[in-house]
Amino acid sequence: MRVSTSMIYQQLTDKLSENAEGMKILQGQLSTGYKYASPAEAADLVGRVQAIESRLKTLDADAKSVSKVKVGVDAQARALEVAAELTDRLKEIAFQGANSQTSQTILNSYAEEMASLKRSLVDLANARDADDRYVFGGVRSGAPPYEIKADGSVAYLGSGTPLRVRVNDVGYEDATVPGPGVWQSVKKDGKTVDMFALLDQLGKAYTTGNLAERAQGLMDAENIANNIGLAIARTGGVQQRLEISERLARETSIRAQENLASIKELDFAAALAQLQKQQLLMEATQSLMGRMSQLSLLETMR
Amino acid sequence: MSDLIGIGVSGLSAYQRALATTSNNISNLQTEGYVRQRAVLTSSDQDSSATISIGTGVRFAEVQRLYDRFAEENLQRATSGLEAEQGMLKELQALQNAIGSSEAGLHSAFQDFFDSARELEASPASAGARAGYLARSEGLAARFRALASTAANLDEGTRAQIDQAVGETNTLLAQLASLNTQLSKRSSAASQPMQLLDQRDNAIRELSKHLDVTVVIDPSGAASIYVGPSAAGVALVENGRARLMSASFDPYDYGKAEFVLDAKSQPVVLPSIRSGLIGGLIGFRREGLGAAINKLDELALAFGRAVNKLHQQGIDSAGRPGEALFYVGPQFVVDGSANGGSARLSVAVVDSETVKSTAYEMKYSVALNKWEVKNKSTGATTTGGSSIVFEGLKFVVQGTARDGDTFRIAPENHPSATLKTLIQDGSQVASAGKLAVRADAGNTGATAAEMTLGSPRDTPAVRPLAELLPKPKTPISEQTFTPGEKEQIAPYQDTVVAARTGPIAMIPAGYSKIALSTAIGEDSALAVFTRDGRQISGPKMAATIVDEKYGFYAGATYSDSYLNKFSPTTAVSGAWTVAKRSAVAGNTEKYLITLSKGSQTVALDLTPAVGATLTAANIDTALATEAAKTGAGTLAAAGIAFRGTAADGTLAFYSKSSSPPFSIAVTNTLSATSGGFAGSNFSSASPVTAPISSYLGLAYSRGVYADSSRQVDVNGQPILTPARLLGSTAVAAASANYTLLLNGQEILVNTGDSVETIRDAINARTPSLGVIARKADNGSLVMTAHNDVRFDVSEIDTVNEDRASLVINGAEYSAGWRVRISTSQLAANNNFITLNGDKYSFTDLADLRDKLNAKLVSGEAVFNASLTDGKLTIAVKDAGLTLQNNNFLKIGANSLGLTEREEYFFQTPTAATVSTKLASFINSAKSAVTATKSGNTFVITNTAGSEGNPISIDLNTVGLTTKTYFNSESISLDVKPTDVAGNPVSRTVLGALGFRSGFVMQESAAEDFLLFGVDKEGNSTAISLSGTYQESQLPAKWLPEKRTYRLKFEGGNYSLIDEGTGTVVAQQKFDTTSRAVRYGNWAISLKAIPSDGDSFTILPNDDAKGDNRVIALIAKLQFDREILPSRQTVQSEYEDLVNKIGVLTVQAEVGRDAQKVVFDQARESRDRISGVNLDEELSDLLRYQQAYQANAQIIQTASRLFDTLMQRL
Question: Cis (ω within 30 of 0) for the bond into B660?
Fold first, then answer.
């Protein structure tokens, strides 16, 4: 088969170029630690890489959101725990107060303690978290949600909408909640009476010494304590879900990072071996070029 | 012997040439396109004369060109293929490097945006999170712009490459044409100079780098070049002629390019070029660049719109309505420069949700008298008149078009290139929801609810009114039932609508100025519903009509609570009985009504004269006067109107706004009181329920039987159309006894009464009715809302006696009797005044007085002057009211600051004269208004023929507010169901007077209305319908998110009440499974099942700072699969783009490698035949050299032989 002189040199030149290109790519990979230096070098992979990188960022954002929500929920839990202690005392007072033998002097002291309990519970309902949010004001979290009016009644000024934050792909949790859902009203005589008004009524019953109302107070105190207990349970549930979200995000993140590494990050040993191979090829081609130039018939003729 | 020498010489000669051929091969070793040549030697002819055949030597037969056409063609094709793949790959790599980069691509920018939205979602009150969100928004927009810029660079770069390739192609084609000319001089290719053939092949090979061609070689060696893979393609070169190629690009669609031959003479469009560099670049532009930029545009549009839509649903931290966060194009530019007609086109985006960023073409056809709009990308078309709405764009043509006139409409720029943030301040980020929901204290079942703003409820499709009554059937400006002007009544253009069980049409929310009518007496009427099942007009229909299949909302229930109600928003009324004031002179008995609304208190003194009776008529008169007053403490200022003492004995005051509420108090000390009004009558005895008509924007919904509307302000803009009520044709006389109820008052009509009789009866009560009647040319009764402007003249004649001036409808009327100049008006010197054309210069007022009176004495002037208390009074001397040529003062140029004017004055300064004279001047002008004086009341009224027209009051000195006074009342017309004898009366008597029944609505509808054609029993029937309407947008005040609602639960059902009007807008069974209530564009979801009596308030959000509901929705867009047609998320869609370009790149790489192999093989194949091998040539060189030397030896041998022979001799 005839081969022209030009063709011989053309093919050698082509091979040298290919080797140089291969060397350049390997150098780029080794210097960056990635399998490719530019997206075009891994054109069919970059889409996947971008998706995984975004996923990692989403998981990071999930973790931040969980952290933000936890701040609010933890504050709710702390406030409710204290409230539970107060309601234990409330129940004790109610129990004692319902006793017909209790003297008016003691009842008067109970009335005073009842007023104090009410103020304490209002303070708890106005609890703030580490981010300075009023956690029982819903989305109106910049101002105290509960206010004691001049007539002694307690008004809710917060929002009816919770501050709901996404903590994972599908789940939302409330960082702050509307107070009435926690400091709930109680049904009494077929009517709805708010918790704070109930304490006032009980205090008044002690002041007046009305035994029937004092007896009723026992049940009211039980209802209040139950409501607080229910709220504590709900908050605990939220805390548990947040923990799960956090753990899931962490585990998913690790898997995503592994995935990304397998696609993107360079196998240095393989790359170095490839570099060595490429160098040998280069040297061989160059050597071939030298030898070919010596194999001229012209030289022989000389 | 000589033969031997001859043989030797022939060898020498032949091998010398062979050596030259070999040398030529060696010397052309590196010549591009050179084809190896080979010397062909043949033995010379034998000597035929000899008996023994002896050769005669060698002959150099030819130089053979070692050329294989097949190998050459293969190489050309391989070259084309390789160039295409290489060209495409290089550009794809550049594109992939841009879009696939984490730093420059969109994927990470989207992620950053969503992450920042989530940060704000978690901390909505944080200024830092707001700033971060804005920064990320702009970062995302900047990425879009940068990628669009990269795409534009690639567009420019590839265009430049293609242009350059086209230029080089043209050069090569010209070169080939020239070579063909030279080659055609010889008939055989074998005889052609090989250099020419090499040049030809080389040019073809170069050409194939640019595009794929097919070459046909004729016997002379001339080449015909055709585009594409066969000779059936378009010829580029034939014989000695080359055709000039040019390229044009679609400026907007990167994937489109057109190649034209002979563009300036006989243009031929080439089929698509698929190979060569041009083919590769076109392929890149089509599959890579075009697809990428289209996808970027789609993402920019869809994402930008989705974010904007949510952002505009929210409110910012200061409670302001959210604005668009992103500027999302496109804007369109129109090119009609080549058109012959004068038509101009304007293009506007009317539906930013559906508008596409694509080019359009709009062409006019005289034969069809229509325009056709074509989407140049999809080929979708539509036709229409001068206004066409298509794919979210409105195309409006003005002027005259010629046949074939064409407008090219293209987006000004790619949306991805213009995306930018419009908000700069973090506080403007609308992160909060517009509405909030609050559980009312005392709820025991449900205490919390979640409010979401989303898409409106699914609306079952119903034919829109515009389809039933397309415009322009009647003028849009018409506000009344009449389609014509005044009494020039054009025939109604009724559309006959066949009976339908379901609605005949739907009036979309926002439509206004609706007047629909049908003739009375055909036993067909219009029934009107809201989609929530509230019937508001027409004969009562069965509850079963409220069904989803008839266009109602799912779960809607029937209600007739607001059927044919005609009442203002809030009103008080009381029963009336006659009361009388004692006849004792000077008694202090009073009858006062005090109305309070907000800061306004209106005291109405309706006390009759001593001994007089308080009657309906004098209350009407007194209240009409009060109603005309303006300023603080008046009915007008308080926004309270009254409806006259109706026949049923009630007096009603009303207000269009319910807030603040108004109260009423009555002081009644009339001694002979047998009744009268007490305060309790008004406040509680008969409260008027706020009707749905008010909520729905119906100023007056009682249009069922011939109602007209008064002048109303729509969004504060007055409508300058008179309120008028007239019908088509009328029967000459009444055929029965009946009682008309005109604006609530009774007008008795007896059998045989003519239209004129009825007219006169109405006009006799105009002041209380507020209506003027006349008979139209067609015999029908025309009723026009009567309006007048009144003011108190008691002070005018004393305070304004110098000069009273009043501008009515642009014309000034003035009256007065003197001009007064005070010392303070004088300058230090050069004082002067021009009176009746004479200039008077004076030093002081006494000097002027003397100079003026001197003229009076001389009889040259008609005024005199007097100086009192430092004031100079100039008065007309002539007395009387009759205008004379000389009893006027014309004030010309002066140094006193007096306005230059010419006007009449009169002399007698009596108290009544000024206003009387003013009225006289107004009436003498014979304009559209007349003036009358009644006691202290000065009344300006429209003259006959101008009734109902607005009266415009401009500058005046009589204390009137500068404004246009519209008719103060509507016209409400009905008939009592029984006559005086108790016989039933049908409303068809109104038809006999020429009136039609229908439905009138001035303000915008707050909701969609469903129209039904029904008979008097409410059954569906055919109906003849005429009407007008205006396609207006829903005013902001009626937007569901602007209003406050109360949601009440009772018996498993819920009621939704519009708090502003008290209207129950929806009643449904509560779905305890979904626990959701939907209305307008909001939905609330209850956390628990409500107990009876539980209620919630849905109200505009008043605490936006800490609310994150809208930003949470924006953050959720990351997973939204509804915003793109592909039902992918924006990031997935972008990932697909990156993958697609990646796959193309890999395919191009593979293709490039494959083509390289093919090319190498083709090159080797060609090289095997036509290539020069140095060793081979050197070998030939040695061979030929030795042969040459041997031949020389032959000659030498012959020479020796000859010498030997000669020596022997």
Answer: yes
CA geometry: angle B556, B561, B563, nearest 5 deg: 95
Secondary structure element (H or E) that encloses residue A166, with its range: strand A163-166
Residue B122 to residue A68, Cβ atoms within 8 A: yes
Nearest-by-Cβ selection for B29 from A5, A40, A142 = A5
B756 CB-near residues (< 8 Å, 6+ apart):
B775
Q: Does B810 touch chain A (CB under 8 A)?
A: no
CB-based contact, A166 to chain B, within 8 Å: yes
SS3 for B1014? strand
Q: Which of A251, A230, A301 is nearest to B26 (CA)?
A: A301
pLDDT at A98 over 80: yes
Cβ proximity of B921 and B814 under 8 Å: yes
B residues 244-303 lying closer than 8 A (beta carbon) to A:
none
Chain B residues 411-470 within an 8 A CB cutoff of chain A: 432-433, 436-439, 441-444, 447-451
Q: Which two tokens stand for residue B1186?
A: 């030795």
Q: What is the pLDDT of residue B683?
A: 37
Tokens 């969109």, residue located: B106
Distances (CA, A) of B76 to B35, B196, B211, B212, B277: 15, 18, 10, 8, 13
Q: Is B920 exposed, middle or buried (0-12, 13-18, 19+ CB in 10 A)?
A: buried
Q: Which of residues 59-98 of B touch A (CB under 8 A)?
A: 92-94, 96-97
User: Which residues of chain A make contact with B30, given a CB cutoff of 8 A?
Assistant: 6
Calculate the alpha carbon distances from B240 to B208, B223, B225, B244 in Å.
19, 9, 11, 13
On whether any CB of chain A is under 8 Å from the CB of B1182, the answer is: yes
pLDDT digits (tens, 9 = 90+) for A175-197: 999 888 888 888 777 677 888 98
Confidence (pTM): 0.67
Query: Residue written as tokens 């960056």?
Result: A32
pLDDT of residue B106: 92
Q: What is the pLDDT confidence band of residue B1111, given thresholds at 50, 70 and 90?
A: very high
Per the CB < 8 A criterion, the answer to whether B671 and B581 are in contact is: yes
- CA A68 – CA B159 distance, rounded (Å): 53
On the CB side of B304, CA atoms within 13 Å amount to 29
Q: Name residues whose C-beta falls within 8 Å of residue A36's C-beta, 6 or more positions apart in sequence.
A: A28, A29, A42, A45, A46, A264
Nearest to A297 among B121, B441, B1175 (CB): B1175
Which of A58, A132, A139, A292 is the best residue to mutate to test the B interface, defined by the most B CB atoms within 10 Å of its own CB?
A: A139
Tell me the average pLDDT across B388-417: 86
Count how many pairs of residues, chain A against chain B, have C-beta atoms within 8 Å: 220
Instruction: State phi, psi for A217 to the nearest 5 degrees.
Output: -60, -30
Helices B127-183 and B194-210 cross at an angle (nearest 10°) of 160
Closest residue in chain B to residue A191, using alpha carbons only? B442
**A187 C-beta neighbours (distance < 10 Å), count:** 11
Task: Look at residue B952 and give its three-state secondary structure.
Answer: strand
Give the H/E segment covering residue B1081. none
For residues A165 and A68, the answer to whether their CB atoms sit within 8 Å is yes
Please state the φ and ψ torsions of residue B407, each to the nearest 5 degrees: -105, 135
Q: For residues B1000 and B693, what is the distance between their CA atoms, to the nearest angstrom?
A: 11
- The bridge status of strand B1095-1100 relative to strand B1082-1086 is unpaired
* Selected residues 63-122 of chain A with any CB under 8 Å from a CB in chain B: 64-65, 68-69
From the list A65, A162, A194, the residue facing B122 with the nearest CB is A65
Task: Give the pLDDT confidence score for residue B818 in this predicted structure.
Answer: 73
Reduced to 3 states (helix: H, G, I; strand: E, B; else coil), residue B986 is: coil
